[in-house]
Design goal:
With 329 residues, the protein is of the alpha/beta class. It has helices at residues 43-59, 77-93, 109-113, 128-140, 181-191, 205-218, 220-228, 253-262, 284-289, 297-311; strands spanning 35-36, 97-103, 118-125, 147-151, 164-170, 192-203, 265-273, 317-324. The protein has a single domain (27-324), classed as Vaccinia Virus protein VP39 (Rossmann fold), CATH 3.40.50.150. The radius of gyration is 20 Å and the shape is globular. It starts with 34 loop residues before the first strand and ends in a 5-residue tail after the last strand.
């Protein structure tokens, strides 16, 4: 039996009520897509742009034509399935409307999945390289001209007030500097219509740390072997996560909820998604299935394992759905 990773089914179009065009800023998405790369005199902004660009150029510059879940090889299908499950959940919770914005749009995955619920698709990312890759991904898939990817920061969105019916922020909130998160949430509220929704997915600090300890215990023998290897001399890790050039600061549920309320949002829904924390680190599942054929029993077992924990709601990522206070419930 061959295990394949299939893309999520196309979402069903909705008839969600949208504001009259006179009450919202126009979304200019019918022109040929272009990547806007604004020049900033802000040293901090330039450093953030450079850090994310380095990450994409070093790791994903050759990903043109592929979305995030497609970067996993067949033996790592369990990780791809988790990304797909997260995206399917976001699409299911998105109410539909005229236009959607993804903050930290990366390779463009979620906007592609939302294409049948929203006519206008816009993405913002601090990496100009990721904007180019995402735009190429959409062209390769012949999405049309109703999309736009721009370089920018969550705390300074380059869009007019009341432009979007949906703003998503998936695995991005933790990469916004803590002292800029209030500004980022206020910007999301500014560009949302009164009937709009904000969907945030971000790892829980406590759950991520706990699952990291579990994973390090399961890989302890391998870590001890690495420590003894004179060519590696790698220390045994218990809590360590991959270090990055850019911000990666996780928060707890109560912190994120408080920040949303203080920025003028009403939380409508909370749930957990994404069970396994270690695809970047090469954790237990990675070493368990590395190099195996897609139909190997270990690969099939890894998929069943993570999917089970996903269904049980034991994920380490938090999903919030929120609306602007005073908006339509």
């Amino acid at each position: 039996m061959t295990t394949t990773v299939a893309p999520p089914p196309p979402p069903t179009p909705t008839s969600a009520t949208a504001l009259p065009r006179t009450e919202r800023a126009p979304v200019r998405v019918d022109t040929p897509p272009a990547v806007a790369c604004p020049v900033s005199s802000d040293d901090h902004t330039r450093s953030v742009y450079a850090a994310f660009d380095r990450a994409y150029q070093q790791n994903w510059e050759t990903m043109t034509g592929k979305f995030w879940w497609e970067r996993y090889p067949p033996d790592q299908a369990a990780y791809a399935n988790l990304v797909l499950a997260r995206n399917r959940r976001v699409v299911a919770l998105a109410p539909g409307g005229e236009s959607a914005l993804d903050v930290g749009s990366g390779l463009g995955d979620i906007l592609f999945d939302l294409r049948r619920k929203y006519r206008g698709l816009c993405g913002v990312d601090p990496s100009a390289a990721s904007c180019r890759i995402a735009a190429d991904n959409f062209r390769v898939r012949k999405v049309g001209n109703h999309f736009d990817f721009r370089q920018g920061l969550a705390e300074r969105l380059p869009f007019a007030d009341r432009t979007f019916d949906l703003v998503t922020c998936l695995d991005t909130y933790e990469h916004i500097e803590p002292d800029q998160r209030r500004a980022a949430l206020l910007e999301a509220r500014r560009v949302l219509t009164p009937v709009g929704r904000l969907i945030i997915v971000t790892p829980s600090r406590r759950a991520l740390r706990a699952w990291t300890v579990v994973d390090n215990l399961l890989t302890l023998r391998r870590q001890i072997k690495w420590r003894r290897d004179p060519r590696l001399r790698r220390p045994v890790e218990w809590f360590a996560l991959n270090k990055k050039d850019y911000c990666e600061d996780f928060c707890a549920r109560h912190e994120c909820a408080r920040q949303l309320r203080e920025a003028g949002f009403v939380i409508e829904r909370f749930e957990r998604v994404g069970f396994y924390p270690a695809p970047e680190r090469g954790g237990f599942i990675y070493w368990h299935v590395n190099g195996k054929k897609p139909d190997h029993w270990k690969v099939r077992a890894s998929i069943a394992f993570v999917n089970l924990f996903e269904r049980l709601g034991l994920g380490q990522k938090m999903l919030f759905v929120a609306r602007p206070a005073g908006g339509t419930p």
